[in-house]
Design goal:
By secondary structure, the protein is α+β, with helices and mostly antiparallel strands. The chain is built from 3 helices and 13 strands; from the N terminus they run ααβββαββββββββββ. A hairpin with a 2-residue loop joins strand 11 and strand 12. The two termini are 66 Å apart.
Length: 288
């Protein structure tokens, strides 16, 4: 069968406008000879010749059963579901698994039977019945949740722009720092790394250290450095002054790195250092 095949629709049930005297209500069992019933249909007497004692079938019975069947067919064609019926359940020995009925109290909802021989009235007990839409939120609940979410989102930082105020808690514990300083307007990034090298002794032998990632061009990061002690001899302490531009005293730092001069202090002696060094660096600056 194809979807395009013609199928009749019972917009009007059989004998819907018939005279009441020409349509009968079909009983469960017949009490009069020759009358139809749900249990026997048209009895054998209606199929026996009149000369042999038979009786003709009643046209009212024919109209009655066809009216019942066409009304049931129209209900099915409309996709309507019957509500639970205790009498019907008792007659068929309970609803079977998969049977679908209308929800007893909520219009437009339905229940599915999950147990054979189910006679439980779902308005009294949901045993053996499943409400597949029972966990879905109502339109009113969704509207209420939407309003709550909108109110909460109004207090959050927008996806672009905006200003964060107050502490920001990390998932792993602690609070993210708020960095305040010159040239730190924008996306502030902290680079922590270790640099190694060796520099010649004497003035002008500065070492250049590059940042792992360049900061925004035109910005000057804030750096903090610590150098290891000088090895050999008396293990004198070293320090690492940042190099400066001649005649300006401006620190030699830009967005890509910085220069410094390893030096040491021993007793009253201060001089440059030419030994191997390891430098621990923290650089705070703006990145695009």
């Amino acid at each position: 069968m194809k979807q395009t095949d013609t199928r009749p629709l019972f917009a009007t049930p059989w004998a819907e406008q018939a005279d009441s005297s020409t349509i009968a209500t079909i009983p469960q069992s017949a009490t009069t000879i020759g009358r139809a019933s749900m249990a026997l249909g048209f009895p054998k007497a209606t199929m026996t010749p009149i000369a042999a004692g038979g009786v003709p079938p009643y046209g009212e019975d024919m109209n009655g059963i066809l009216n019942m069947l066409s009304r049931a067919a129209r209900t099915a064609e409309l996709g309507m579901l019957h509500p639970f019926s205790a009498d019907y359940a008792a007659t068929i020995n309970g609803y079977p698994v998969g049977a679908t009925i209308a929800h007893p109290t909520i219009a437009g909802r339905f229940l599915i039977c999950t147990a054979d021989n189910n006679t439980n009235d779902p308005s009294q007990s949901m045993n053996g019945w499943l409400d597949p839409l029972g966990n879905y939120a109502t339109a009113a609940a969704l509207q209420q949740e939407t309003q709550r979410a909108q109110a909460a989102e109004a207090g959050l930082l927008p996806l672009s722009g905006g200003t964060i105020t107050g502490p920001i808690n990390r998932a792993g514990g602690g609070v993210l720092p708020e960095v305040i300083g010159p040239n730190l307007t924008g996306r502030v990034v902290i680079q922590a790394f270790v640099a190694t090298g060796q520099t010649g002794v004497g003035y002008g032998n500065e070492a250049w250290v590059s940042f792992p990632a360049s900061f925004t061009p035109g910005t000057i990061p804030v750096i903090s450095i610590a150098i290891t002690r000088e090895t050999g001899g008396n293990y004198v302490s070293r320090f690492a002054p940042i190099g400066v531009y001649l005649n300006t005293a401006t620190p030699h730092i830009n967005n890509t790195g910085f220069s410094f001069q390893p030096a040491y202090a021993k007793g009253g002696e201060v001089n440059t250092s030419g030994a191997q060094w390891t430098l621990q660096v923290i650089a705070i600056g703006v990145m695009q």
